Amino acid sequence: AVLMTGGRQDTGAGLMLSHSWSEDVEEFLSAIKEQQAELGIEDDTMTWFCVFSNYQSGDDAGPSIKHQLELEPFKVVIESEDIKKSKAGLILVHTTVDELYMRLWRAYELHKALEVGVKVHAAMSKKYIANVMRRASMFFASGCDDETLLKAAGIGTSTCQARCGCSDDEEMLVALILQSGGFKALDRRVEEFRMKCLPTCLHALLSFAKLRNLNENVAIEGVVEVQALAQQENRMGRSISE
Fold first, then answer.
1. Are 194 and 157 in contact, with CB atoms under 8 Å apart?
2. Which of 40, 49, 74, 122 has the fewest beta carbons under 10 Å from its own?
3. What burial class does residue 132 get, using C-beta atoms within 10 Å of its C-beta: 0-12 exposed, 13-18 middle, 19+ buried?
4. SS (HEC) of the chain
5. Pairing of strands 89-94, 15-18
6. Radius of gyration (Cα) for the chain, nearest Å?
7. What are 26-50's pLDDT values in tens digits?
8. Closest Cα partner for 113 from 162, 87, 75, 169?
9. How far apart are CA 53 and CA 72, in angstroms?
10. Cα–Cα nearest to 174, from 187, 159, 158
């Protein structure tokens, strides 16, 4: 990682990437490029990416994963002043190949970043968004309410089922999560973040689906949201059906 910076030591990381090891690399790159353009991240931003920043070959040529974990590299980066001040902060990358939040490190990284005040963003590949919308639209057309629609689209979260590839990691993270509020609290934090980062088109579909919810308060919330959507569309000179 040091070699790839060209020897720069003038600043710490201004961006951290959180991802799944089994992701689609092309989807990962396209999602990151779109997020970079949206946030205005400079090409020379110092980036902490575990693929290049941690030695994980599993041979004797470099430090072991266990030894590196003892150095707490994630904690050092996410609690640094450089990344706290950065507009980029932490970016969680979503692709179709793997469910990001079934990786325990990803859920914990999100939790810790929000806890220490780091800006957190969601990068999603176009294929990922299309897949989420396909599922959501299918269930909406079948008459489902918002809760069922979210589950069908894969937005629901159960972090106690998330795993790590390394048993040492898993044992450490379970202990840390239990010490900081437990898995139900982590579920709520992940779900709140995911709801804030939903694609605009899915937000609109959810508003209509809430009208079918048997909970009166949720249905009323849906009415308010649909009315707001209609007003927004009218200002833009478009029909809400579009």
1. yes
2. 40
3. buried
4. CCHHHCCCCCCCCCEEEECCCCCCHHHHHHHHHHHHHHHCCCCCCCEEEHHHHCCCCCCCCCCCHHHHHHCCHHHHHHCCHHHHHCCCEEEEEECCCCCHHHEHHHHHHHHHHHHHCCCEEEEECHHHHHHHHHHHHHHHHCCCCHHHHHHHCCCCCCHHHCECCCHHHHHHHHHHHHHCCHHHHHHHHHHHHHHHCCCHHHHHHHHHHHCCCCCHHHHHHHHHHHHHHHHHHHHCCCCCCC
5. parallel
6. 20
7. 999 999 999 999 999 999 898 888 7
8. 75
9. 12
10. 159
For 50, the token pair is: 């575990």
Q: Look at residues 78, 59, 142, 154 and name the one whose alpha carbon lies nearest to residue 116.
A: 78
Q: Scanning the structure block, which residue is given the tokens 């990786």?
A: 103
* 42: CB partners within 8 A, 6+ apart: none
Burial class (CB in 10 A: 0-12, 13-18, 19+), 117: exposed
| Per-residue pLDDT tens over the stretch 148-178 | 999 999 888 899 999 988 888 899 899 999 9
pTM above 0.90, yes or no: no
Q: At how many degrees (to 10) do helices 167-179 and 182-196 cross?
A: 90
Cα first-last separation, the chain: 48
Chain segment 105-156, per-residue pLDDT in tens:
999 999 999 999 999 999 999 999 999 999 999 999 999 999 999 999 988 8
